[in-house]
Amino acid sequence: MISFDEAAHLVLELARPAGSERVPIARAAGRVLAEPVRAMIDSPPADAAAMDGYALRSEDLPGPLRLIGESFAGSGFAGTVEPGTCVRIFTGAPVPTGADRVMIQENAARTDDRVSFSEGPGTARHIRGRGSDFRTGQLLVDAGEPITPRALVAAAGADAGEVAVWRQPRLVVLATGDELAPPGEARTRPGQIPESVSYGVAALAEQWGARVLETCRVADDLKALERAAASALEQADLIVVTGGASVGERDFAKTMFEPAGLELLFSKVAMKPGKPVWLGRAAGRLVMGLPGNPTSAMVTARLLLAPLVTGLSGRGGALEWQPVRLAAPLAACGERETFVRARRSPSGAEPLGQQDSGAQAPLVEADLLLRTRPQEPARQPGDIVEALEF
Ligand SMILES: Nc1nc2c(c(=O)[nH]1)N[C@H]1C(S)=C(S)[C@@H](COP(=O)(O)OP(=O)(O)OC[C@H]3O[C@@H](n4cnc5c(N)ncnc54)[C@H](O)[C@@H]3O)O[C@H]1N2
Ligand code: MOO
């Protein structure tokens, strides 16, 4: 059995992106850049009005000035603002040659083609200079950065029609167990329970950058499991198997990958919950086995699957431990390093009362994992502990 740190280290070593692809900007949200986005244009491309009003020469104020034309965003005024003249202008429109200022229309009085201004020039010129946002060639979003909704605006604004991103790892989730029924059907089937874990694991993997191709329920029948494994290995870069990780007579999660030449990278980690978690390689794909107990599955998915997925998708950095203050006592750690489910409250982290690895209800409010090391004594409110967003 290896330690959690050793398992996490192995995961990080393996988790390298499998090549890049170019995608249209409309499909780039959430992806991770394989190449930086540099500006293809100056922004704005020309000096532009920041307000609706009149473009003019400051020294001509307060007028009256002769109105000689209009400048709209998308169709500017081709002429020049000569002494004693002005041009009607709208926000975003190019400022015509000769003008050095836009006066807002609220301070203008117009009669036919004569415009006078009630206020002095003031300090604001209401002009956004060419390239004042960014210049051609400027680095806007660096390689390795995820394309957030905010970064998407800068990348599209840079005139990038497509971007180079790391390929998303394709994931198949196989939920094993004779007792599992689709949610909504368990109550009508004696001996069955709802299959819950694959939904959480798939959503978590997507949240960290995977593309989930499929999630399947498979009964504890070795032939059916081997068929499911072979089909998953054909389509996916990464396969997650839930359940059957322990030592029961029908625990086939590893056996089902043996015909594909399963090579185990680790099997069992000294952590609580989640001891039976394992990682292997078969037919050139990665296979991660999560325990069937729902809390164990979600804790191991957060601690080992999330870093695997972020590494494969080029992003990295899923294990950012932060110090948090305890708002309630934290029990002493036993022999196995323990990841205590806790709730974040305004006064700090509150360890949850229910810590059963088979529980599902506490997952709703467990937004933190608190890390406690083997044999660590109990901790008191006010103490600082290591925590991870769950
Ligand atoms: N003799 C031993 N028994 C067990 C050990 C051990 O070391 N020696 N380890 C325990 C630990 S720790 C864990 S964790 C569990 C994990 O076992 P498995 O991965 O084999 O999980 P299952 O037996 O298949 O299921 C456990 C539990 O979870 C329910 N389950 C399974 N899959 C789902 C699902 N997709 N959705 C909802 N619920 C699921 C299943 O019905 C069981 O109740 O083993 C201990 N045993
Ligand atoms: O790891 Mo098991 O998750 O301790 O019950």
TrEMBL record:
Its cofactor is Mg(2+). SUPFAM superfamilies: MoeA C-terminal domain-like, MoeA N-terminal region -like, Molybdenum cofactor biosynthesis proteins. Signal peptide: none annotated. InterPro entries: MoaB/Mog-like_dom_sf, MoaB/Mog_dom, MoeA-like, MoeA_C_domain_IV, MoeA_C_domain_IV_sf, MoeA_linker/N, MoeA_linker/N_sf. Pfam families: MoCF_biosynth, MoeA_C, MoeA_N. Its EC number is 2.10.1.1. Residues 172-311 form the MoaB/Mog domain. It catalyses: adenylyl-molybdopterin + molybdate = Mo-molybdopterin + AMP + H(+). Residues 341-366 are annotated as: Disordered. Keywords: Magnesium, Metal-binding, Molybdenum, Molybdenum cofactor biosynthesis, Transferase. Pathway: Cofactor biosynthesis; molybdopterin biosynthesis. Catalyzes the insertion of molybdate into adenylated molybdopterin with the concomitant release of AMP. Belongs to the MoeA family. This is Molybdopterin molybdenumtransferase. It comes from Tsuneonella deserti.
